[in-house]
Amino acid sequence: MQDFKFLMLGAMYENGGNTTHRFLDGHPQMFVYPFESQIGTKLVSDRMSSVFPVKYRYPVFSLDATPYQDYKAIIDEEGKVRARTPHVSKFRHIEFDFNDDERCEIYQKYIQETGRSRANNVAAFFKSTFDAWKDYNRTGKEQFYVGYSPIFVVDAPKLLEDFPNGHILHVVRNPWSAYADTKKRPVPHSLADYMLGWTLNQYYALLYQEKYRDRLHIVRAEDVMQDPYNTLGKVCEKLGLEPADSLKIPSWNGKPLEEVYPWGTIRKATPEANLATAKELSTEEIEEIRLRTRQYLEVFNYHDFLG
Questions:
Q1: How many CB atoms sit inside 10 A of residue 62's CB?
Q2: How far apart are CA 264 and CA 266, in angstroms?
Q3: Which of 115, 172, 230, 232 has the most CB atoms around its CB within 10 Å?
Q4: Are the CB atoms for 299 and 198 separated by under 8 Å?
């Protein structure tokens, strides 16, 4: 794992994680996971388990499991649903020549070579994904494996300690637009619950950036929307990669997307749409969010976002 180059994105729900993931998608030096890479397992159990779904967490594996059982334990809901039951997947409209059983076989071969460990299991999962993905648009220049899982920053130390060449990119979006978008879910979070998650994400992002200054990076979704090339190009340079023109346009498997949905709730990744979304909230909601997030509004320069 000393040579495995890994970039994991994290963001609170509706904070622009999927959007940023799609802007990175076409980069010629990156293997970018096709969907949310939900690598958590049901064995995750700690103080955060009651706040965030275990599928978004860093995985825990049983000590006596087999490589096959390890693979099956990884939740990867979006990927496995699209591969195994495409007719019920929200991504059923896209071409995806991929067999989950084949990935499982490739995964086990990697583990036979490396042995079981948390780091080896995670690396084998990502490597086998791209080995099994038949119509992946390869460039031959790929160096970094890139995943995205919401709220992943809460587990940042585990990944960074497992992978010496690992990095985490945390995305933060203003809390008003984020909450306005989460209200559009079929079963939305309450304002209080959503803001608890939002503030926890920013707390851990700032804490771990201090501890892992060269390997934990933070970008604002607003800056990605305004100027994705320069905002994400700076992150690429920190990884030792070249900025690429592909950063200017969100894509899937290198194919431009007119809107990010259904990869995320953000349809149009523009500053104008972002501000309009925030203004969908009532005056009471706006002020309640301001109260609950006040300690982070100055830090991320959101104090006058709504004027």
A1: 11
A2: 5
A3: 172
A4: no
CATH architecture of 6-297: 3-Layer(aba) Sandwich (3.40)
- In one-letter notation, the amino acid at residue 216 is L
Q: Confirm if 181 and 273 have CB atoms less than 8 A apart.
A: no
- The DSSP 8-state label assigned to residue 40 in this structure reads -
Name the token pair of 53.
């779904």
Per the CB < 8 A criterion, the answer to whether 189 and 141 are in contact is no
What letter represents residue 56's amino acid? Y
pTM more than 0.70: yes
The string of pLDDT tens digits covering residues 37-86 is 999 999 999 999 999 999 999 999 999 999 999 999 999 999 999 999 99
User: What is the C-alpha to C-alpha distance for residues 18 and 259, in angstroms, rounded to an integer?
Assistant: 11
Domain boundaries, the chain: 6-297
User: SS3 for 237?
Assistant: helix
User: How would DSSP label each residue in 49-63?
Assistant: TTTS-GGGSPP---T
